Amino acid sequence: MDDELITERRPVAFPQVFGYLRHATRNPARHSALVSCLTEYCRRHELALCGVFIDRDTTAAIRSPAFVGLVDALELPDTYGAVIPALNHLGPKGLSAERRRRITAAGARLIVVRTSKPTTGAALACGSSSNLQRQADT
């Protein structure tokens, strides 16, 4: 999870990624903003966003339906990694650590758009919920 550019500095033949969101709100604007954030990040880094898995029940265990679907997709040939808006989308500390381990075990890279210290344009554009809301309106 470093801030360096992804495809520009690594030889990647098929940079296919899958998104993962964990949010319980039924707010369509928030949902659209989160998906737009992932889409824009992938566009800027020349990654093909092949799908987004969404957990709406934030109390779910490690093996929630959406997360199991994500891991299955990450095991497909030519899949580069999983992209999430921020680490909290993987869940609380214990759940997050196990999910990170499972993503890595699938042979995939975990790409976090907004780290604790945003340093890239994509991270700044997706840096706060208010920015996410504005993105949905554009």
How would you characterize the overall build of this protein?
39% of the residues lie in helices and 18% in strands. With 138 residues, it is of the alpha/beta class. It has a four-stranded parallel sheet with strand order 2-1-3-4, sandwiched between helices. The C terminus is likely disordered.
Strand-helix topology:
Blueprint: E1 16-22, H1 28-44, E2 48-55, H2 65-74, E3 79-84, H3 93-105, E4 109-112, H4 121-125, H5 129-137
Parallel strand pairs: 1-2, 1-3, 3-4
Helix pairs in contact: 1-5
Key descriptive features of the protein:
138 residues; alpha/beta; four-stranded parallel sheet; globular; disordered C terminus
Helix content: 25-40%
Low-confidence stretches: 118-125, 127-138
Largest sheet: 4 strands, parallel
Shape: globular
**Termini distance?**
29 Å
Number of helices: 5
Q: What does the average pLDDT come to?
A: 79
Radius of gyration: 14 Å
Oligomer: single chain
Q: Hey, roughly how much beta strand do the residues contain?
A: 15-25%
Please provide the ordered H/E string of secondary-structure elements.
EHEHEHEHH
Content-based structural category: alpha/beta
The count of β-strands is: 4
- What strand line-up does the widest sheet have? 2-1-3-4
How would you concisely characterize the structure shown here?
The chain has helices spanning 28-44, 65-74, 93-105, 121-125, 129-137; strands at 16-22, 48-55, 79-84, 109-112. With 138 residues, the chain is an alpha/beta fold.
